[in-house]
């Protein structure tokens, strides 16, 4: 009998989910999102593999992730037909220095994942909560954790070290990198789009959270995010790279740790600079000079980091755009490619307006592509591989 796979990607007040059929290659059956968890009013959206809306009715107020999972278990009939389900796969933001591959969750692993909460306090608790809830609700259902940090475990030590005393390295203070499941998804999809994986490749995952990775022969050698998801590029509400002396100054000036955390995670980036919004589409349509400034900073940091990553690779063969902004913002792609002309990238304007997939000219020495990401499919593939092999 063909089995099904449940994929969970949980946030602080939302739960993205998908169901896959475990054929030779995991095949999407449906996907959806429960939002407004713990906020008094929940919203449920579900579509089939073709993007057509499915009528699952309304979701009552959901106080916790466990309430959202109870709803999913009921609508998907998991408890009623457990024999139909291979297991559940979860996105887990942080795997620390121990988890460099997807892992079946058993024994003390869940406790170890919870111990990493201090490394990703805004993400890890919400990744761990659905795992704990499913263990209670469906204790016989196998579960797999897929880590955003795992893809970057191939970076050389020189790329992950901070110039701090040895004791801090031993304590786990290092550059981890994130968005790894997205980068994996691109590498999986790229051969069908581009005919292979270029030897010196930079992938730009541009969304509300944004990062870039330098990939040599399919392996990550450098990335813009570091110890936390705050580093690197300017993002929707996060500043990216910032002088730590500026943060010390704010603390000395009376800002509390909680206020600083809110500033860095929620009130900075293009939202903070523009004073308007974190939504790139809205900023691109705005005539406000602060919106233009926010976009200029956003693109400038991408150009700077692209040069850095090209240096780490010793050159550049291809650039891939993905994520909500990377896949949809024509003007941002055009700006980035214009700034990369010194690397030999020539943009095909018409192809860029059409949405690719290739947006560089035939004469360009650096190929540029648009490739949609699919983190849920990556999780489903790992879950199928681990649980079928078990």
What is the typical, i.e. mean, pLDDT? 95
CATH class of the largest domain: Alpha Beta
* Neighbour order of strands in the largest sheet: 4-3-2-1-5-7-6
Supply the number of structural domains: 2
Q: Can you write the helix and strand succession as a string?
A: EEEEHEEHHEHHHEEEHHHHHEHHHEH
Overall number of strands: 12
Q: Briefly note the CATH topology name of the largest domain.
A: Nucleotidyltransferase, domain 5
* Assembly classification: single chain
Explained architecture:
The protein has 390 residues and is α/β, with parallel strands linked by helices. The protein has two domains: 4-147, Nucleotidyltransferase, domain 5 (2-Layer Sandwich), CATH 3.30.420; 192-375, ATPase, nucleotide binding domain (Nucleotidyltransferase, domain 5). Helices cover 38% and strands 19% of the residues. It is built from 15 helices and twelve strands. The strands form two sheets. A seven-stranded mixed sheet has the order 4-3-2-1-5-7-6. A five-stranded mixed sheet has the order 10-9-8-11-12, with helices on both faces. Helix 1 crosses helix 3, helix 6 (180-194) crosses helix 15 and helix 11 (289-313) packs across helix 13 (330-339). The chain starts with a strand and ends with a helix.
Element layout with pairings:
Layout: E1 4-10, E2 14-22, E3 26-35, E4 43-48, H1 65-75, E5 85-92, E6 103-104, H2 109-115, H3 124-137, E7 143-147, H4 157-160, H5 166-170, H6 180-194, E8 200-206, E9 210-216, E10 219-223, H7 244-252, H8 257-266, H9 269-274, H10 280-285, H11 289-313, E11 318-322, H12 323-328, H13 330-339, H14 349-354, E12 367-370, H15 375-389
Parallel strand pairs: 1-5, 5-7, 8-11, 11-12
Antiparallel strand pairs: 1-2, 2-3, 3-4, 6-7, 8-9, 9-10
Helix pairs in contact: 1-3, 6-15, 11-13
